[in-house]
Design a protein that fits this description.
The complex is a heterodimer of chains A (110) and B (114). With 110 residues, chain A is an all-beta fold. Chain A is built from no helices and eleven strands. In chain A, strands 2, 4, 5, 6, 9, 10 and 11 form a seven-stranded mixed beta sheet that branches. A four-stranded antiparallel beta sheet of chain A has the order 1-3-8-7, with no helix packed on it. Chain A is globular and about 35 Å long. Chain B is mainly β and 114 residues long. Chain B is built from no helices and eleven strands. Chain B is globular. The chains are: A mainly beta (110), B mainly beta (114).
Chain lengths: 110, 114
């Protein structure tokens, strides 16, 4: 089954404690991205990757890092999480302008 | 500045009637538009799309209309069913971004009542 898998689904952490949200896709897509969803703002792109070792900032990259060492994986890293990063996060992989999303990670930073 | 706007946060319709969800955009460089459906605790799922060279695209009960001069698109669901109750996001992209980046509206929560 074609899918995008994120882990964990839910995470509560404390300010400043580094965390990683993993994302994996099995569709062999070159383009992958991370979005965050906040009330009244829809989904906003954080970072994207056009291929292995090629990453770039989206619209809201501050406080986040990504890496793309393998085509299927695109982890999101928060080096020092802050409460304003409390949000719902979605990983996506894209095929010709259509994005396919994972199930989401609800992150709470206290 | 919000380039894609869905001005109705919520919509309630009776089962069997038509649901019309609206979306406006400001960037004239957008040339591809999509609708996504999202259930609670799930990721958005792709529903239907339309290229700017068309003004209508139909898939079963779902039809998307594009009015480029008004920078407006709409999603029609006919007939509406209780299982259609979800949040609907419209999204847009430009042709020069190599196919990836989507700009989303705020979403409209549709409730279809039996």
């Amino acid at each position: 089954e074609a899918q995008v898998t994120q882990n964990p689904r839910y995470l509560i952490t404390v300010t400043g404690k580094k965390l990683t949200v993993t994302c994996s896709q099995n569709m062999n897509h070159e383009y992958m991205s991370w979005y965050r969803q906040d009330p009244g703002l829809g989904l906003r792109q954080i970072y994207y990757s056009m291929n292995v070792e090629v990453t770039d900032k989206g619209d809201v990259p501050e406080g986040y890092k990504v890496s793309r060492k393998e085509k299927r994986n695109f982890p999101l890293i928060l080096e020092s999480p802050s409460p304003n990063q409390t949000s719902l996060y979605f990983c996506a992989s894209s095929s010709w302008r259509v994005a396919f999303f994972g199930q989401g990670t609800r992150l709470t930073v206290v | 500045d919000q380039q894609v706007k869905q001005n109705s946060p919520s919509l309630s319709v009776q089962e069997g009637r038509i649901s019309i969800l609206n979306c406006d955009y400001t960037n004239s460089m957008f040339d591809y538009f999509l609708w996504y459906k999202k259930y609670p605790a799930e990721g958005p799922t792709f529903l239907i799309s339309i290229s700017s060279i068309k003004d209508k695209n139909e898939d079963g009960r779902f039809t998307v209309f594009l009015n480029k001069s008004a920078k407006h698109l709409s999603l029609h669901i006919v007939p509406s069913q209780p299982g259609d109750s979800a949040v609907y996001f419209c999204a847009a992209s430009e042709g020069n971004n190599q196919g990836g980046k989507l700009i989303f509206g705020q979403g409209t929560e549709l409730s279809v009542k039996p």
